Amino acid sequence: AQSVAQPEDQVNVAEGNPLTVKCTYSVSGNPYLFWYVQYPNRGLQFLLKYITGDNLVKGSYGFEAEFNKSQTSFHLKKPSALVSDSALYFCAVRGPYSSASKIIFGSGTRLSIRP
Amino acid sequence: GAGVSQSPSNKVTEKGKDVELRCDPISGHTALYWYRQSLGQGLEFLIYFQGNSAPDKSGLPSDRFSAERTGGSVSTLTIQRTQQEDSAVYLCASNPGDRTDTQYFGPGTRLTVL
């Protein structure tokens, strides 16, 4: 069975500092990994995804994520946080096998950037 | 183009009543998902459609929950005999159907069971 974990309910970072939001996964075979963001009172939006190739994936709003197969992780990062990055972030995973494999989401991490 | 739409946006109902939630996916998207999000919490997978069939219904919490999809398009999630613990935001998402595709989410239906 596939699963995804976000070990931190909340991450607090000062504006201008680097940020990391952690995600680990479990899936048979090579995973497809995604990050989504949910701003207050807005729908979920796609940030970036890893399918294959370069382990460092760049996405929207200056975010990037690094796929680490040995650690089964896909942590979200940004070199310099903005107050406007404050939101709820979700990691998601889908297994490669079977057309019926579903996309499942982690429990979410609330990112709070203080001025 | 039009995104994923859901209706109603808000639904308040009394305990024990049945409710129907509707999702209109993006035209041409063959995959459709239903998720539930309790206040400020994570996304709980409910059911997934590929075309009109549902390969995975494992997330439906109980037999009070059912969903159907017709014409490979509109989907309806029905909750019978609603309970207070059913209160949540119900999110629908669609994608073109390839397993590498990103999800396009609707705005959600906020269900409140009194």
- Give the largest interface: A-B, 26 and 22 residues
The total strand number of chain B stands at 11
By DSSP, the count of extended strands of chain A is 12
For the biggest sheet of chain A, the summary is: 6 strands, mixed
Strand portion of chain B: over 45%
Gyration radius from CA atoms of chain B, angstroms:
13 Å
Question: For the terminal residues of chain A, how far apart are their CA atoms?
Answer: 41 Å
Radius of gyration of chain A: 14 Å
SS content category of chain A: mainly beta
Multimerization status: heterodimer
Proportion of residues in β-strands of chain A: over 45%
Structural class of chain B: mainly beta
**Mean model confidence by pLDDT of chain A:** 91
Please provide the ordered H/E string of secondary-structure elements of chain B.
EEEEEEEEEEE
Report the span from N to C terminus of chain B: 37 Å
General description of the model:
The complex is a heterodimer of chains A (115) and B (114). Chain A contains no helices and 12 strands. Chain A has strands at residues 3-5, 10-14, 19-21, 24-26, 32-38, 44-50, 56-58, 64-68, 73-78, 87-94, 104-105, 109-114. In chain A, strand 5 and strand 6 form a beta hairpin. Chain A is globular and about 45 Å long. The mean pLDDT of chain A is 91. By secondary structure, chain B is mainly β. In chain B, the strands form 2 sheets. In chain B, strands 2, 4, 5, 6, 9, 10 and 11 form a 7-stranded mixed sheet that branches. A 4-stranded antiparallel sheet of chain B has the order 1-3-8-7, with no helix packed on it. In chain B, strand 9 and strand 10 (104-105) form a beta hairpin. Chain B is globular, with a radius of gyration of 13 Å. Classes of the chains: A mainly beta (115), B mainly beta (114). The interface between A and B is medium-sized, with 26 and 22 residues.
